[in-house]
Amino acid sequence: MDEELGRVYPQARCSLDHDGPFQLLVATVLSAQTTDARVNTVTPALFRRCPDAAALAGSRREELEDLLRPLGFQRAKAGHLLGLGAGLCERFGGEVPRDREALMSLPGVGRKTANVVLGNAFGVPAITVDTHVGRLSRRLGWTTSKNPLRVEKDIADLWEPTRWTDGCHRLIAHGRSVCAARLPRCSECVLLEAGLCPQVGV
Fold first, then answer.
1. Which PROSITE patterns does the annotation name (predicted)?
2. Of 24, 67, 86, 193, which shows the fewest CB atoms inside 10 Å?
């Protein structure tokens, strides 16, 4: 299955614009309850103003809220970023940790965010269960669960670790372009054509 998607989406990658682990961590925290494309419109100015954890921790909340306003939930997001910058400086010397539990100890960082950073910034195989990965996994019959941790485990049972990070990018690309939530374009689906999709729930 992943081979089929790999032929269609050979360049699939993380859609959050970033340069290094710090920027990816911040961008991923900001992507909650909004789109990656929208996050990419605010992060250039944010990273110019806050190029590292120390600058982020020392930011004025009002300035952060102004920068983040286009994303919505700017007060909560500003609070997460201030706590994130402080946590990185106080506990990790300003560096992004390479450990999942350490990442998840930071404000605004859950398992999905930690997996994004591990897989894309540090090359540690990780499965990111966003809405697309969850939906496609159920439609493909890989899982019946809506619990992200259960879905992650079910995918891990099917794929070798070398496929985890980029395989999720390919699923996300397919979910965005073909296998939409309400109106999937099954007539254009390479997985259905190859007899790999049972169309569960479609």
1. ENDONUCLEASE_III_2
2. 193
Active site residue 112: yes
Which of 1, 43, 35 lies closest to 18, judged by CA? 43
CATH class given for the domain over 21-121: mainly alpha
Please say whether the beta carbons of 16 and 67 come within 8 A. Answer: no
In tens, the pLDDT along 127-175 reads 999 999 999 999 999 999 999 999 999 999 999 999 999 999 999 999 9
Going from N- to C-terminal start, the domains of the chain cover 2-12+127-193, 21-121
Give the pLDDT confidence of 112-121 residue by residue, as tens digits. Answer: 999 999 999 9
Architecture of domain 2-12+127-193: Orthogonal Bundle (1.10)
Active site residue 130: yes
What whole-number distance in Å separates Cα of residue 189 and Cα of residue 101? 37
Q: Please pick, among 17, 36, 130, 153, the residue that the annotation labels catalytic.
A: 130
CA 163 → CA 2, 36, 166, distances in Å?
8, 22, 6
DSSP of 71-130? GS-HHHHHHHHHHHHHHHHHHHTTSPPS-HHHHHTSTT--HHHHHHHHHHHS--------
CB 132 within 8 A of CB 172: yes
**What is the spatial distance between Cα 139 and Cα 67, in angstroms, rounded to a whole number?**
38
- Which conformational region is residue 94 in: left (phi greater than 0), alpha (psi within -120 to 50 degrees), or beta? left
